[in-house]
Amino acid sequence: MDAATGKTGHDLGPLDAVVLDTDGVITRTASVHRAAWKRLFDEYLEQRGDDQRPFSTEDYLAHVDGRPRYDGVEGFLTSRGITLPEGEPSDRPGTETICALGNAKNRYFKAEVAEHGVQVYEGTLAFMAEVRECGASLAAVSASENQ
Questions:
Q1: Which of 17, 72, 101, 135 could form a cystine bridge with 64, CB 3.0-4.6 A?
Q2: 3-state SS assignment for residue 19
Q3: Residue 90: is it exposed, middle or buried by C-beta count within 10 angstroms (0-12/13-18/19+)?
Q4: Cα(76)–Cα(64) distance, rounded to whole angstroms?
Q5: Torsion of CA 95, 116, 64, 89, to 10 degrees
Q6: Which is catalytic among the residues 2, 11, 16, 23?
Q7: Catalytic residue among 11, 21, 59, 91
Q8: Planar angle of CA 83, 88, 89, nearest 5 degrees
Q9: How far apart (Å, rounded) are the C-alpha atoms in residues 106 and 130?
Q10: The pLDDT value given to residue 23
Q11: Whether 21 is catalytic
Q12: How does pLDDT run across 95-133, given as a tens digit for each residue?
C-alpha cells in the first residue's frame, strides 16, 4: 500500500464485482478462533486425564482450520484417538458430545470478541475502497454462523 495515497497499487481493470471472505481476509479473527479452539481442547483433554498434550498450531491447521465447527471437533478428537457421539446442535456445553464441545468453542469465541472486539486488515479496507471507487460491486461472505 502506498503510504502517500492510501492505494494498494492493484490494477483493478474492468471489474464487475469482488467477493471477499470475512475471517482472515477482512477481519483478524483467525487468531481468535485458534485461541478458542485451544482453550476448548486444552480444558477438555485435562478433564479427561489421558492424552494431555496441549492443542497446538499444528493441530489447528491439520484438523480444525477451514472446517465446519463440529467437523473440526471430530477431526481433532479422532487424531487423539477419542470417539464421542455426535449429539445434537442443541447440546449444551458440558455434555460429552461433539456438538456440545463445538458449542463451547463458539461461546469462547463470542466471549473473546465481546471483550476485545475484532481488528481489521487495513490493507483490505484500502483495497475495498478502491473497488468501490472503480464502480464494481463488493460483497463480504463467510461460512461462519457468527456474522
A1: 72
A2: strand
A3: exposed
A4: 7
A5: 30
A6: 23
A7: 21
A8: 115
A9: 34
A10: 84
A11: yes
A12: 999 999 999 999 999 999 999 889 999 999 999 999 988
